[in-house]
Design goal:
The complex is a heterodimer of chains A (539) and B (408). In chain A, 55% of the residues lie in helices and 3% in strands. Chain A has 539 residues and is an all-alpha fold. The longest helix of chain A has 18 residues. Chain A is globular, with a radius of gyration of 25 Å. Chain B is α/β, with parallel strands linked by helices and 408 residues long. Chain B has 13 helices and twelve strands. In chain B, the strands form two sheets. In chain B, strands 1, 5, 6, 7, 8, 9, 10, 11 and 12 form a nine-stranded mixed sheet that branches. A three-stranded antiparallel sheet of chain B has the order 2-4-3. Classes of the chains: A mainly alpha (539), B alpha/beta (408). At the A-B interface, helix 15, helix 24, helix 27, helix 28 and helix 29 of A face helix 6, strand 7, helix 8 and helix 9 of B.
């Protein structure tokens, strides 16, 4: 089969309605800002196509290279920087997506009631869960399935990727208390709208989302005086004293805010700054349980005294505005720019990006007041991004591997949440990293034996149709088992590796798959070996 | 150090000559087995076990006063009565399978043990118990990984996590092989494709000279190694019969009895968060305890001669309230218990200082107090099994204070 046939096949897939491209041109025109003239982008060779799609998308589908070629890198990238209109994302995928968006009233009511019933014990949800017939496990699975669905099917690939980036940067843990029912809402309302917007908006949105407040305990943080007040009145309350949880200042969120969300661990703050930040943010909490689980500023818990953070005075009596001013100050801090730029360069350039590259990107972040799209544009135009030595140097995270394999195969996800089992097996189920650092984005974190075995296993099961929740409607059309072996391998090279597959990988695929007589098994083995190969794990 | 397979040799064999599983099992049998290697088996009972229902302080009047519907009856009080251990404590009757092991002095109980801090969050407490150091929220390495880090580098099979994830105690630089189940540790395509897939991946990863290649080779090596144990046909010894819920313990026994150089096995056992309908000896907790007892007894029987070099320790993040709550269950408390079982255990004792159960003796007037730091137990068993000596590294901020539950 010739290249022309393959393109025709891709066009046919498009015509079948698999992927209606958004008409983003009009939107682009409205929002386009002048791109910085750091570099003239190289011409679109297969190598460049692979680099751009490998870094700014979840990997090429059959039709992506043609799409990129038709627009050129600059215009394709500008389209990617324009988020789809709100609501469009929600129609992307089926049922799991919509379920995950929720903060369904009945679920929240159950958790709120639970909170009310025993302040010591916010975790005994099993009873309520049963009483209200809420399948919390299914809800958690839906949040995960929705993320994978977006990564596989969204045309707004860069947005999907940045949603994952920020969801890890502002990590919450879906199994902690009520985060179970808030996690989907957290991603949709705090992360998605700002994923390509302004960092400050992202920071404020996460700071005030109940999922974050619960995950990092700021909902429990109370002015120190209040603690004394509460403790003198507690206990000895008769024959059956109701014990109370010890209340007071909780530094958990304050510390992660400085260390992980903004300044970075070397950002020049002290333990005293952590305490002062925690004091400023007292009152960033939840409404009363009987009213549900929404954010509310609680003046009764707020520390009204004077504070000093990084030499800047806050309060007294600043209320919520004091905390918002602090967040704005942190968002604008040069250490924050450096920290965020470092992480972005690690995602898009290399595991160990060079310092000048990070400095240039950080400068752009600062100049644009934390404009995320402008910062990404700076990465696209940075000489380090185009350094041939960084190409293919990133190991795909498990989520990136999974999405890229599904995209390369033209797979579809059904309405179930089964795909989360695969995410679990691969080691990166969305929003299920307990530690606030989120999932790591360096090769060393994902090169373990069992982790790679899981990838080989998923590749094998995937092409054999053994992964529940995944459909391969066009497998026989796109990869006919009647195809002669050399043609099959050539097509694998073209679709999976954009024609750049290394000779050795292709040889092994050809020889080992070729040892199988049965045509379907042979075709499946060839696809699985290619998807599970070291070459496909890189981007 | 026992001799082990050289991976590179294995892979040369694998690629050169349609490498047969039989070759490995024969080679394996010819190697001297690490017969005197001690093994530590950790069982984390997630969800907070009600220690007062496991080993009942039946001399405490307040136990019966505060638990009108869920108390386990005193020894000798007919059906469902607890089984006396030492005149103060008695075993839940559903754990009867453990009594002979306790009497044979191969099982010790440590009561009123737990975290030195007072958290009642599962999340925080499990993390704290597994990280066992500062920065519980952000630490990347757990205590057991740090302990293994003290030893000479071992093979992939040295520490094995049986379950769905590597626990935080084992996460870190030492690495643990995650095995969901022994039988399933393989590529899962149709059997017809199996050999081609194995050979293909071995070649693809065998030629990759970076960390990715090493990881892939390790993984494929491990599948050969574990499948060579032929887990499908494993027959436990002495008629040992594991409850379904404890299949991991069966896998653990097979791994320990094999010629593989296993030093640490970790598994989780969940479902202990009994906020409601906990019941007495006949209740839902009793049912779970019966499974646990049968599983541990099966493990003991199955290990047979190898039991002598194994130490199993159970842990749980905290205990539960002394008083039962309004829904026939118990809420999050403080002190709980740990069990230590093995050939070198100073068994037949309920160790640790008993703080008493009257309200003023309780933690915050509500929960069993903690008089033994959980690290007193983990420190002692890991010293015994792994030769841990650098406590400032493995358990920062902790001063060893062992109870003598293991013979040194």
């Amino acid at each position: 089969m010739s290249d022309g046939d393959l393109v025709a096949l891709g066009a046919a897939a498009l015509a079948l309605g698999c992927a209606a491209r958004p008409s983003a041109t009009t939107r682009t025109a409205q929002s386009a800002k002048a791109a910085p003239a750091v570099a003239t982008l190289p011409a679109l060779t297969p190598d460049i196509t692979r680099h751009v799609l490998g870094r700014f998308s979840y990997g090429p589908t059959l039709t992506d290279p043609a799409w990129l070629a038709s627009l050129g890198v600059e215009r394709w990238f500008e389209e990617q920087l324009v988020p789809p209109p709100p609501g469009e994302a929600a129609t992307l995928a089926a049922a799991p997506y919509r379920r995950a968006l929720g903060q369904p009233d009945d679920v929240v009511a159950a958790f709120a009631a639970d909170e009310r019933s025993d302040p010591v014990d916010t975790e005994h949800i099993s009873l309520r869960k049963q009483a209200n017939r809420i399948n919390v496990k299914e809800l958690v699975a839906a949040v995960g399935a929705a993320q994978t669905a977006r990564q596989v099917t969204s045309d707004a690939q860069l947005q999907a990727l940045m949603i994952d980036f920020w969801a890890n940067h502002f990590n919450v843990y879906l199994r902690k208390n009520a985060v179970k029912v808030l996690g989907g809402n957290y991603v949709e309302t705090a992360i998605v709208p700002h994923a390509l917007g302004r960092f400050e908006d992202l920071l404020v949105a996460t700071a005030r989302h109940p999922a974050m407040l619960i995950y990092l305990d700021n909902d429990k943080s109370v002015v120190a005086d209040k603690e004394r007040e509460l403790s003198t009145g507690r206990l000895r309350g008769g024959a059956n004293p109701k014990p109370r949880k010890k209340r007071g200042l909780n530094e958990n969120y304050a510390r992660e805010l400085l260390e992980l969300h903004t300044l970075g661990v070397d950002g020049g703050y002290t333990q005293q700054d952590v305490i002062e930040v925690a004091r400023v943010l007292t009152g960033f909490g939840l409404c009363r349980p009987e009213d549900g689980l929404s954010y509310e500023f609680r003046p009764d818990r707020h520390d009204r005294g004077s504070k000093t953070v990084l030499g800047v005075a806050f309060g007294p009596n600043g209320g919520e505005e004091e905390g918002l001013a602090l967040l704005r100050m942190l968002a604008k801090h040069p250490a924050t720019a450096q920290h965020i730029a470092g992480k972005l360069c690690r995602r898009f350039v290399s595991d160990a990006p060079d310092a000048p590259c990070v400095a240039r990107v950080a400068a752009r972040f600062r100049e644009t007041d934390g404009d995320i799209a402008a910062t990404l544009r700076a990465i696209l135009h940075d000489p380090s991004f185009w350094d041939p030595t960084v190409r293919g140097g990133k190991l795909k995270k498990p989520s990136e591997f999974l999405a890229s394999a599904l995209r390369a195969l033209g797979a579809e996800l059904d309405a179930s949440t089964e795909i989360t089992k695969v995410s679990q097996q691969l080691g990166e189920p969305p929003l299920l990293q307990p530690v606030p650092t989120g999932y790591a984005d360096i090769a060393a974190a994902w090169s373990g034996g069992a982790q790679l075995l899981a990838r080989m296993d998923v590749a094998t099961r995937l092409v054999s149709g053994k992964v529940p929740g995944v459909k391969l409607p066009n497998l026989d059309e796109l990869w006919p088992s009647t195809l002669a072996l050399p043609e099959l391998v050539a097509r694998i090279n073209r679709v999976f590796f954009l024609g750049l597959g290394d000779a050795r990988t292709l040889q092994v695929v050809r020889e080992e798959a070729g040892a199988i007589e049965e045509p379907v098994d042979r075709r499946n083995a060839a696809l699985a070996l290619a998807l599970g190969s070291p070459a496909f794990q890189r981007r | 150090m026992p001799i082990r397979f050289d991976r590179r040799t294995l892979f040369r064999m694998g690629t050169a000559s349609a490498w047969s599983l039989m070759a490995l099992s024969h080679a394996a049998q010819a190697e001297p087995r690490p017969a005197d290697r001690r093994v530590l088996v950790c069982v984390f009972m997630r969800g907070a076990v009600d220690g007062l229902s496991v080993v009942v302080p039946y001399a405490e009047a307040s136990y019966y006063r505060d638990r009108s519907s869920i108390a386990i009856q005193r020894p000798g009080k007919g059906d469902g009565a607890a089984l006396d251990l030492d005149g103060r404590f008695a075993l839940n009757p559903r754990l009867a399978a453990l009594l002979p092991i306790y009497r044979a002095k191969e099982l010790a109980v440590v009561h009123a043990v737990g975290l030195p801090t007072g958290t009642r969050s599962h999340f925080d407490a499990q993390d704290e118990m597994e990280i066992a150091g500062p920065d519980v929220h952000t630490a990347a390495e757990g205590w057991l990984s740090r302990a293994l880090g003290e030893l000479p580098r071992g093979g992939l099979e040295r520490s094995i996590a049986l379950g769905d994830h590597v626990p935080r105690a084992l996460s870190g630089t030492s690495g643990a092989l995650l095995v969901r189940n022994l039988e399933g540790f393989d590529l899962h395509g149709p059997g017809r494709m199996r050999d081609a897939m194995h050979r293909g991946f071995e070649r693809l990863y065998g030629e990759s000279r970076d960390a990715l290649g090493q990881g892939g080779r390790d993984a494929l090596y491990a599948t050969r190694m574990l499948q060579a144990l032929d887990p499908k046909s494993y027959q436990p010894k002495n008629g040992a019969n594991y409850p379904d819920k404890y299949k991991h313990l069966r896998d653990a026994a097979q791994l320990i009895k094999s010629n593989l150089d296993v030093q640490v096995v970790w598994l989780d056992a969940g479902g202990w968060d009994t906020h409601a309908g906990q019941g007495g000896a006949d209740g839902s907790l009793g049912k779970k305890l019966e499974e646990l007892g049968r599983a541990l007894a099966a493990f003991r029987a199955d290990l047979d001669a190898d039991f002598g070099r194994v130490t199993l320790v159970t842990m749980t993040e905290f205990g539960r309230t002394v008083a039962e709550n309004g829904t026939g269950g118990t809420d999050h408390g403080h002190g709980s218990l740990m069990m230590v079982m093995g050939g070198a255990v100073n068994g037949g004792q309920v160790a640790g200082r008993w703080p008493g159960l009257e309200p003023e003796q309780r933690f915050e007037e509500r929960d069993l107090a903690v008089t033994t730091d959980y690290r007193d137990v983990l420190g002692e068993v890991s010293t015994h099994c792994l030769g841990v000596s650098n406590f400032t590294h493995t358990f920062p901020g902790y001063t060893p204070n062992f109870l003598g539950v293991v013979r040194s």
